[in-house]
Specification:
The chain has 107 residues and is α+β, with helices and mostly antiparallel strands. It has a single domain, classed as Orthogonal Bundle (Arc Repressor Mutant, subunit A), CATH 1.10.10. Helix 1 packs antiparallel against helix 4. The chain starts with 6 loop residues before the first helix and ends in a 10-residue tail after the last helix.
Length: 107
């Protein structure tokens, strides 16, 4: 994972990590890459809901998705975990806080 260079990137990372489904996705992908249907079955959630969580993780650069063609010729979307490590401490927050963009959120 690239270094977090500003407060907005830190916030995106922390938001991506703040959901139990996304933490479970990371745990599953830590073992091996998975395709969407397999991942949805393993987590017991719908593919549309899974895609929402995958998008959040991908936006934070925690995972990468790519297409592969199966032996039967079917296109399958696989996701894999990007290496990452982040120590969140008072120094990091103090360093990046001034670069946060405060905007109204529609969530």
């Amino acid at each position: 994972m690239k270094d977090i260079k500003n407060g907005d990137e830190l916030l995106k990372f922390l938001e991506a990590m703040s959901n139990p489904y996304r933490l479970k996705i990371i745990a599953v992908l830590q073992k091996e890459k998975q395709y969407v249907s397999q991942l949805a079955r393993e987590l017991g959630i719908s593919r549309p809901l899974l895609y929402l969580h995958l998008q959040k993780l991908e936006d934070a650069n925690l995972i990468t998705g790519h297409h592969e063609v199966s032996e039967s010729g079917k296109a399958m979307k696989f996701y894999e975990l990007n290496p990452f490590s982040l120590t969140v401490d008072k120094e990091l927050i103090a360093e990046l806080a001034s670069s946060l963009t405060i905007k109204s959120r529609k969530e």
